[in-house]
Specification:
64 residues, mainly beta, four-stranded mixed beta sheet
Length: 64
């Protein structure tokens, strides 16, 4: 089933023939609101989701 919009709020929905994305220019979304401080760009295709997430300095160094 084809979708016209991304399922993830704020993600970029890849269009036909789009294969290269500048993640720094995409909208920045939270990678795990409520449990993780990571953020970054996200692209959704028909069968795959790709994201590049970054953690704010000093936020991920605690042992877990």
């Amino acid at each position: 089933m084809k979708r016209d919009a991304a399922l993830t709020p704020g993600a970029k929905k890849a269009g036909r023939g789009e294969y290269v994305f500048d993640f720094d220019r995409l909208g920045q979304i939270m990678g795990g609101p409520g449990y993780s401080p990571v953020f970054g760009g996200c692209v959704e295709g028909e069968r795959m989701i790709v994201a590049r997430m970054r953690a704010p300095a000093g936020k991920m160094g605690d042992p877990h």
